[in-house]
Amino acid sequence: MSVLGIDIGNENSVVATIEKGAINIVRNDLSERLTPTLVGFTEKERLIGDNALAKVKSNFKNTCRNIKNLIGKIGTNLDEDDLELNESYGDLVACEYNYLGYMVGYKNEVINISAVRVLSTLLHFLIKLAEKYVGKECSEIVLAYPPTYTNSQKECLLVATKLINIKALRFISDNTAVALDYGMYRMREFKENQGVVVAFVNIGYANSCICIARFYTKKCEILSDLADCTLGGRNIDNEIIKYINNLFIDSYKINALYKNYPTQMCEMGNGKLNKYLDLNNKDLSKIDNKIRVKLQDVAVKTKKILSANNETSIHVECLYEDYDCQGSINRETYENICSNFFLTKLKTLLDKSIATSKVKVEEIQSIEILGGTTRVPFIQRFLVEYFNKPLSKTLVADESVARGCLLSAAMLSKHYKVKEYECIEKIQHPISVQWYNMNEVPNATTTLNNADVNNDNGTTTTTTTTNTTTNTNTTTNTPVSVKTKVHKLYTCDSLKKKVNKIVIPEKGSIKVTAFYEENPDLPTNCVKELSSCILKVNDKHDKIVESHVMTSFSHYDTFTFLGANTVSKTVIKTKDERKKMDEKNEGEKNTTSAATTGTGTGTSADDHLKNEKQNEGEKSEANNTTSATSTDGNTTTDSAGGESKFTNENHNHSKNKNELKKGEEGKVQTCYTSIPVELLPAPGTYSAKDIYTFSEAEINMQHSDTIEAERLKHINELETIIYETRDRMNSMYTEFATDEEKNKVLLKLDDIENFIYDNMDENKNAFIKKKEEI
Ligand SMILES: Nc1ncnc2c1ncn2[C@@H]1O[C@H](COP(=O)(O)OP(=O)(O)OP(=O)(O)O)[C@@H](O)[C@H]1O
Ligand SMILES: [Mg+2]
């Protein structure tokens, strides 16, 4: 059994594993440490990783890219200028629960497949690669997610792991993974109580992540964990693509990218390449993705050359019909066209990161750079200037995130013993809760919105409309006026590990909903509701003063309702009061037993207990857990158990009451009773049925891929046998055969070779038979 740390990048995926106590990066079938994050669909099979890359030029329409940025992104009402729409070479569509996905051709059909499902395909492929590499089963993983992910995006990540039945131990932010990789190996350099502040700048293909963290011997505090998912290497590629296209327009008056606008130059300096040049006339102005793929390839090569050289030539063969594109670009021009927009956005992100971390730039002791795009010289120069410090490159630029995930996996897995290194993280987006009494709204299964949030930590009451929801993020309006209470729960300064308490001073059926507060950092069009629950507080129980709902974050960094308690308070009676009550009870008992003959009466202690229980109206909750009993609200003893436990405790308690110490009478006794919470799926939560259906579909596709791979293997083997036998007939077998025999065999081989090309679609048995024939 082995554990894996997986970094799914928008361009490259990296898998880390442990071998002989050391971290090892998995090499794929091409012996590469980075595997392209691409999944292609064809008429016969799915192509994943390098296989998808090999065919991307001819199969770009059916090749899923930018998978990580599309996970859990809502596909309806998207702005046509949306970067992800423009970065896709095929068609993006809204799939289940409105999550974005790809429209691809697979086995002669057009299918819509969500990015979540495509991710599960990729994950399965990477895990199988790792298992082949380490020669062991790998069934536990830790995945990294970009800091921009919202709650529902992390839930989608979890769904992707469920679809392939893999155990995700934890999800961590890209930045936390890097901090862990950094801190773990430098424990001895840090001090127990004097922190070292380090900034990490990770710029990849489609994301730029900035992290500022303070490191101590055994822990680090993540002071800021930010990212911009619209800034990365692809923006630079776009500028070079436009530059080359403009060169072509200059030479031939042909706009290869937008055919219907021969003389219109592409607008430079924004890092974007729009699907449409002119949004008003989409039919005429659509980008030619075939040209774009060709140019992308050249642009990336050009960019990489310019990272190490001052000039490079540009040559694109047959860019448009028979016309080649020729030209050159020097570092100065390259930087002129790319640096302005890029550095402006990067500076905004850095400024925000510094502000969030509440440290001064001068306090940052080291700047670590990682991610492929930090190899660009103008970015490095800018960072040196910004931080006024030399850059440090001690982390493995492409592998640090995967290594951090692996360390986290090893810490959590029971199969390994690893020194603990704690990363203390904060909440990314402020969260509030709102609740209302459902008894006030008959027949309501509702979602609340439009609530006002109080600025302090108190609770506001606001009248809001409720909407009946379906299990999507669309709402059908049936407005009802209801009083909702809104409570700020987590601010950006709250720690992720913190357990928070929502105090609800009302009884009845209470619906509690947690949601992201409106804030400019939230992605537009995201699912704002995090989770809802209903708790039923017995309104006949007059001792209940309030209820507490506890919340926290799961291992997947998703918001969770941990449970709820009712809090009841009773005043401990004096001896005289108790005596009077006992007498009263006795009287009542006699009348009851006189009225109900044939019913067991029990002992007086039992009756006392029964009465007390009835008094407290606790009956309906007695099968729940009684969590604590305390006097004076000072001492609390936790105890768990069912009804009998509750009964025994009360029994003991009633005994104890007789032996009350002086002065205890009249004090307030607090009783915490845990009550069940009914969790309601947030909009966009995958149902168990859907998980089952998609998981089955994934297994079928895997099966079909295996059959196809086997078929291709037999075709390859048959071809090899044909070539080898032909070769031998003309060399080592010559002296053992007459010319006639030789010709007969050679003719047969030609026949079989023709058979292959005429029957490419036959199943494997046809080719096995031919192998046997030879
Ligand atoms: N020598 C280089 N010079 C310039 N850019 C480079 C160089 N090497 C790689 N890149 C760029 O780095 C980017 C890929 O970096 P990386 O592998 O870190 O991204 P990723 O992790 O897949 O994406 P992300 O983190 O954004 O999801 C690509 O845009 C690639 O062109
Ligand atoms: Mg990355």
Structural write-up:
With 774 residues, the protein is α+β, with helices and mostly antiparallel strands. It folds into three domains: 2-231 and 341-424, Nucleotidyltransferase, domain 5, CATH 3.30.420.40; 426-593 and 605-684, Substrate Binding Domain Of DNAk, Chain A, domain 1 (Sandwich); 688-773, Substrate Binding Domain Of Dnak, Chain:A, Domain 2 (Up-down Bundle), CATH 1.20.1270. Helix content is 36%, strand content 27%. The chain has 19 helices and 33 strands. The strands form seven sheets. Strands 20, 21, 22, 23, 24, 26, 27 and 33 form an eight-stranded antiparallel β-sheet that branches. Helix 8 packs across helix 10. It is globular. 39% of the residues are buried. Bound molecules: adenosine-5'-triphosphate (ATP) and magnesium ion (MG). Adenosine-5'-triphosphate is lined by residues 9-12, 68, 204-207, 232-234, 300, 303-304, 307, 371-373, 375-376, 398. Keywords: ATP-binding, Nucleotide-binding. Belongs to the heat shock protein 70 family. Residues 447-476, 577-665 are annotated as: Disordered. GO terms for molecular function: ATP binding; ATP-dependent protein folding chaperone. InterPro entries: ATPase_NBD (IPR043129), Heat_shock_70_CS (IPR018181), HSP70_C_sf (IPR029048), Hsp_70_fam (IPR013126).
Summarize the structure.
36% of the residues lie in helices and 27% in strands.
